[in-house]
């Protein structure tokens, strides 16, 4: 695909004896928010790990920004936020961000910009282990923004967040995309699908469908994404 930030071809990954990804091929367009949706265990995290280059793969290829996934040259260009918070509980929000900024060699002002982007200014001087779950996941996200990455891979970033925070985070994702970043955001909540410009629907290690929300609704004749997903599963069985 022209203009794809991520290109995955015939990717097969086996984890713990299970085929977690089975000949997956897809492209993630540059400068858009692509949603990766599907039920628990369908392979979303495995696909994301393959894209950021931390997954041992059986066969196939993954290219990110034209380089093989995991290439050293991609380190500052690709950010990955896992489901588990990867920040220090005994440091403040600002302390964490300063620490990661110094490791990354991020420029002056990056810490404040990242704190503002995730709307944590009021919590900036609080210890991270005193924050709520939603605040904690926003600190992780802020660390990923320090380097102004071109590709952001976010594993279920809105899990456990209230509707207002979810709306605000999706607005942030779209602002980042409007500035040219490519976002791949996983979720197993189907109503988040309509917030994406493009969707990849997965099931049991396979890509069921890949396209715009409107195209998927049209293709299935369904009224909402949940029904569209079910229709695709039923269609796959026939
Ligand atoms: N560390 C592991 N060791 C062995 N098998 C694993 C491991 N992690 C995941 N798997 C298996 O790989 C498959 C895909 O899991 P994966 O975590 O990619 O799914 P997921 O769609 O991200 O799920 P969730 O939405 O629950 O995070 C599953 O069958 C799972 O049991």
TrEMBL record:
The keyword Nucleotide-binding applies. It comes from the Bacteria. InterPro entries: AAA+_ATPase, ABC_transporter-like_ATP-bd, ABC_transporter-like_CS, P-loop_NTPase. Residues 6-229 form the ABC transporter domain. Keywords: ATP-binding, Nucleotide-binding. Coiled coil: none annotated. The keyword Iron-sulfur does not apply. PROSITE patterns: ABC_TRANSPORTER_1, ABC_TRANSPORTER_2. GO terms for molecular function: ATP binding. This is ABC transporter ATP-binding protein. It comes from Longivirga aurantiaca. The lineage of its organism: Bacteria, Bacillati, Actinomycetota, Actinomycetes, Sporichthyales.
């Amino acid at each position: 695909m022209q203009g794809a930030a991520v290109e995955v071809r015939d990717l097969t990954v086996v984890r713990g004896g299970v085929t977690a990804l089975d000949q997956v091929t897809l492209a993630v367009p540059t400068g858009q928010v692509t949603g990766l949706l599907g039920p628990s265990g369908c392979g979303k995290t495995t696909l994301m790990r393959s894209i950021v280059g931390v997954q041992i793969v059986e066969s196939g290829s993954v290219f990110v920004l034209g380089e093989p996934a995991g290439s050293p040259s991609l380190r500052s260009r690709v950010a990955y936020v896992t489901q588990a918070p990867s920040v220090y509980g005994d440091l403040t929000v600002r302390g964490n961000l300063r620490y990661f900024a110094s490791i990354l060699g991020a420029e002056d002002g990056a810490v404040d910009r990242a704190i503002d982007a995730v709307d944590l200014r009021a919590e900036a001087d609080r210890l991270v282990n005193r924050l709520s779950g939603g605040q904690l996941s926003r600190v992780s996200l802020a660390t990923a923004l320090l380097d102004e990455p071109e590709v952001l891979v976010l594993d279920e970033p809105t899990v456990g967040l209230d509707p207002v925070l979810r709306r605000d985070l999706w607005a942030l994702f779209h602002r980042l995309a409007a500035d040219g970043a490519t976002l791949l955001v996983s979720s197993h909540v189907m109503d988040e699908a309509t917030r994406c410009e493009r969707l990849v629907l997965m099931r049991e290690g396979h890509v069921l469908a890949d396209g715009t929300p409107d195209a998927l609704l049209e293709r299935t004749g369904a009224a909402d994404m949940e029904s569209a997903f079910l229709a695709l599963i039923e269609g796959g069985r026939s």
